[in-house]
Amino acid sequence: MNQDKDQMPQQTDEQNDSPQDDQSNSVNNTDLKQTSISANQNETQPSVDMQNSEQPKADEPLSLKNQEKNTATDTSSNQSKAKKKAFIVIGLIILIALLGLIAFGLWKSYQPKTVDVQGRVEAETIHISTKVPSRIEEIFVQDGQKVKKGQALVRLSSPEIEAKKQQALAMLQSALALQSTADRGSQQENIATLYANWQSMKAQENLANITYQRGATLFNQGVISRQRRDEMHAAAQSASQLTEAAYQQYARAKRGSTTEQKSTADAQVTIAKAAVAEANALETETKLVSPINGTVSKIYGKPSELVVTGVPVVSLIQDDEMWISLNVREDQYAQVYQAKALDGFIPALNKIVPFNIKNIDAEGDFATIKTTRQTGGYDIRSFKVKLAPADELKDLKVGMSVIFKLQESKE
User: What pTM value is reported for the model?
Assistant: First the structure.
């Protein structure tokens, strides 16, 4: 019994001890819960692991739920913070872009405005025509073909020119024959004939003189009358004059042509040669050749068609010397004449090329812009600027546009 009594206090003591243990365990659990809550607030994973390791197995599902809730809350808060940061960055970028756009607009508004002025590539055009009415016989070139100086372009035909040439050649032959006769003088046979005639007249003169002398003697002797003596005297004088005439003819034939006759013959030859040269020149007009190196721009007419005097048959472009023709207003003149060169954009070649200013000429009154204001203002004239490429451009063609940028005038 005593043993039982002894055992009873022990059990009582054990029972008394067990509530104390339970109380201490509950206190410990409370402490651990508080520790786990503080650890979650501080967002430290090691404390959570310690709490999980120290809590009893019965409270583990509750702590896991609390941990998942805390993790989800932290993730959502982090995402919201990241979104806020992204919105802030995007807003700053947009703000900077707007400020930059405003600054660029202000800078652009204070910059001088430019205006596009269009010029055109030009070259000298040569029209080739003929001076005689003729017919197109053959065409050797075509539009757009490159030609060299002296190259045949068109051949024409004209029967009238051929006939005129033959006539001129005949006149030249006649004049040359006359010139040869004048230079050579009379033929030897003519000279001999004239000499014989002179000698005959000389013999007749001697006979007439002897007859007169005899008649004079007979007259003095009273044999013949005075009339007969005078007739003998007249016959003697006539024979003397005829002898002199025959001698002059012989002397002229022997001397040859005079200086004047030779000059006349030479003049006739010169006239005939000029006629032949004229005929040859007209014949040359039937063969049209290129006077320059260039490009065929246009051919007017076809084979077998008639060509009128002075009407162009072929047009050539002298494309080895091209320039740009640009018209500028008077209010833009100051920007041009002070510059020695301008940069122009060629749309056909898609390149910017420098051009040198050659000269500036004033346009006519038709290119003057009249003012419409009653008071103030002035008539704006136009000026033609001639520019040439600073460097050789092989691809530059006549008719291409060239764009120049000039500052717009301030009103």
Answer: 0.51
